[in-house]
């Protein structure tokens, strides 16, 4: 009884996200910087989703995967930036325990799904380049759907159970999280419970997941590259490479920064470097993905042209219709 009473008296746990310091002159600049990044990221990824959904020529597994990746990137950045923007604008850097766990849980879930999806995408490219004759039979809409569903299922099975443990932690005096979002380690460091088991479980599950998906992705690329190098004609070699070079870039940045942050212990890297690498996979990858995929991709260029032509045609017909209505109205008035 007494214990329950005590619990009720404990004030709501709140954290302070230290973010990028407290320099009042820096805050507006940071706000603008992240606002632009956020808008560009959401717009770019939405554009890809619209193209994949609206253009019938992009209805292939590779672009289904890309559309899903763009959706994940929007979720990824939305789990982090709006909260950061709000705190830069208002100067209020507090976040509740529940808010923190929701942010961490969402981010973890999306990041896990993303690394599985990148693995599925590299498998798709592997089939397309190493087994081109059997590609249509092995990879179709149904298989693609199953793979996407599998990615979500895999991360749902691991993510939420781990996050749910965080609700049971007790936190002591220090409430300052030395990061710009609620990441696992900075948050768990503040608990006064024994978190060794939780840390071990999380790092085993996360580490195995990251390691396996990274390894399989690398294996796919290894076969892809060795197959491409064996193509005798330079023209075909370049063409084959162009269908997977953009994906390869994205994979390298994503896994590279993720592994740098989580595998190399925080104590050995300076805080600034740690924050910068975290920015890579939380903010930078989501932002540059659409550019990487659209800038050098002829199919996407053509699709952009088709969809914008369709849009102008639609707008013109709409204008014409409105014009006709107007003249009709005038005739009637006369
Ligand atoms: C995601 O993948 C599914 C299954 O392949 C596909 O039907 C859907 O269109 C994709 N979503 C987007 C936004 O591309």
What does this structure look like?
This protein is mostly helical and 334 residues long. It has a single domain, classed as Rhodopsin 7-helix transmembrane proteins (Rhopdopsin 7-helix transmembrane proteins, Up-down Bundle). Helices cover 78% and strands 3% of the residues. It contains twelve helices and three strands. The chain has helices spanning 2-9, 26-54, 61-78, 81-90, 97-130, 135-138, 141-166, 184-188, 196-230, 234-263, 271-295, 298-333; strands spanning 14-17, 94-96, 176-177. It has a three-stranded mixed β-sheet. Helix 3 runs antiparallel to helix 5 (97-130). The chain is globular and about 65 Å long. Mean pLDDT is 81; it is low at 1-9.
Low-confidence stretches: 1-9
Mean of the pLDDT scores?
81
Side by side, the strands of the main sheet go: 2-1-3
Percentage of helical residues? over 70%
Tally of domains:
1
- Can you tell me the CATH class? Mainly Alpha
Query: What small molecules does the structure contain?
Result: 2-acetamido-2-deoxy-beta-D-glucopyranose
The ordered H/E elements are HEHHHEHHHEHHHHH
Number of strands: 3
CATH superfamily: Rhodopsin 7-helix transmembrane proteins
CATH architecture assignment: Up-down Bundle
What value does the Rg take, in angstroms?
Answer: 24 Å
Topology:
Layout: H1 2-9, E1 14-17, H2 26-54, H3 61-78, H4 81-90, E2 94-96, H5 97-130, H6 135-138, H7 141-166, E3 176-177, H8 184-188, H9 196-230, H10 234-263, H11 271-295, H12 298-333
Parallel strand pairs: 1-3
Antiparallel strand pairs: 1-2
Helix pairs in contact: 2-3, 2-4, 2-11, 3-5, 3-11, 5-7, 5-9, 5-10, 9-10, 10-11
